[in-house]
Design brief:
heterodimer, A: GMP Synthetase, Chain A, domain 3, three-stranded mixed beta sheet, B: 11 helices
Chain lengths: 149, 255
């Protein structure tokens, strides 16, 4: 008899897969994993052209295989589109600890180093497509801000 | 009017969308390592990435609609210039930075309005790609509008260059709104959209940004049409030669 796969165990495996570009958050924290059933893991890309998308799918495949879930398939869906609202509260806290201002609807970012809101945008695009480059006028440190969208 | 077979309308519609994004993405990639500052270099490369991401989705869907076993890579790398369906605007050479930004402004403003409308497409794949990409394209439109303003209302030299960039690209704008048999049929089926619906909105947005940049709109010129039917400027062939060289020369190459 084949033992039924526990989706809780699948979630645990997925929570151990880090985002390749921001390794402090997992693919679950980022909201890349949409749904998990005993047969299928459904994922969605963050940005249309995000080069990490293929790496993420490969990393998830390897993690599932290593945990013995070779028969669980992975499906990618585009709809509904990913937004920064899919990032979990725990994920946002980890981003901030890491030095990346988490996405927020506020016009100004809060400096992840000193907590000041006296900050300014330097460039619309930062080190990756999902982040913009900001600078803190209080502590003078530059920092990345996750774009809110 | 010639009638167009049902499935070929979807295929052609997806090719037009995908080729616009692919060709402009490749053009922006040419700036990598050459931009005026590292921040601008990142902006151009990231916009290029967004566009190539769109192209991957559109061209994979085009291959599926065609049903002959071609995927997005086959369509991108193994078609010749006459089979490309992009508009003339996106294949224009980068020129200087102002010319690149003028092109981006005229294109991204249009693409944002187009994708907003395509979010309601009767084709689920087109609707999903448009809904996903429109947020990114809004960024491209904002960023390029900021540069039009900064350069137009800047020094004498930056102003002259922006004026020349707009002058060069102005004649390619009417093609964005051309409704030929394929576009009309696609709009009638709810797969595509009648671009005339957002022409006024487009003109107003362009006019507002030019006013803020203290620039006059260029005089209307004789429109250049034909990209949607495979008639292109000499520039596209050179672009494809660079883009397609590797997969054609080493067909089985992998990373």
């Amino acid at each position: 008899m084949v033992e039924a796969i526990d989706t809780e165990a699948l979630w645990q495996v997925l929570e151990s897969v880090p985002d390749p570009e921001i390794p402090v958050v997992s693919v679950v924290d980022l909201g890349i994993v949409r749904a998990v059933t005993p047969e299928l893991v459904t994922i969605t890309p963050t940005y249309t052209g995000c080069p990490a998308t293929q790496v993420i799918e490969r990393d998830i495949r390897e993690a599932l295989d290593a945990a013995g879930f070779r028969e669980v398939a992975i499906e990618t869906v585009l709809s509904p589109p990913w937004t920064t609202d899919w990032i979990s509260e725990a994920g946002k806290a980890r981003l901030e600890d890491y030095g990346i201002a988490p996405p927020s609807a506020a016009l100004t970012a809060t400096c992840p180093q000193c907590g000041s809101t006296d900050t300014e945008e330097l460039s619309r695009f930062g080190s990756t497509p999902c982040k913009a480059q900001w600078r803190c006028r209080a502590c003078l440190e530059p920092f990345d801000r996750f774009k809110c969208h | 009017m010639a009638t167009v077979a049902t499935d070929s309308v979807l295929f052609e519609t997806l090719l037009r969308l995908g080729d616009d994004s692919l060709v402009l993405g490749q053009r922006l990639g040419e700036w990598c390592g050459h931009a005026p500052s590292v921040e601008v270099d990142l902006s151009l490369a990231n916009m290029g990435l967004d566009l190539i991401g769109q192209a991957t989705h559109f061209l994979n869907a085009a291959g599926a609609a065609e049903g002959k076993g071609r995927d997005g890579d086959a369509l991108a790398f193994h078609r010749d210039v006459l089979d490309f369906r992009n508009c003339w605007l996106v294949e224009q050479p980068n020129g200087d930075f102002a010319q690149t930004m003028a092109r981006q402004f005229l294109f991204s403003t249009w693409q944002e309005l187009l994708f907003r409308n395509l979010e309601g497409s009767a084709d689920e794949t087109i609707a999903a790609i448009a809904a996903k990409a429109v947020k990114e394209v809004r960024y491209h439109a904002e960023l390029s509008a900021e540069w039009v303003i900064r350069l137009g209302d800047g020094t004498g030299e930056s102003r002259r260059r922006m004026e020349e960039g707009l002058e060069w690209h102005w004649r390619f704008v009417p093609e964005l709104f051309e409704m030929d048999a394929v576009a009309t049929e696609a709009a009638a089926r709810g797969v595509g959209v009648d671009a005339g619906l957002f022409r006024e909105d487009y003109d107003r947005r362009i006019r507002d940004v030019l006013a803020e940049a203290t620039l006059e709109a260029p005089k209307d010129q004789r429109p250049i049409l034909g990209g949607r039917r495979g008639h292109h400027s000499e520039h596209l062939g050179h672009l494809l030669a660079v883009m397609q060289f590797l997969p054609r020369t080493y067909p089985d190459a992998t990373w």
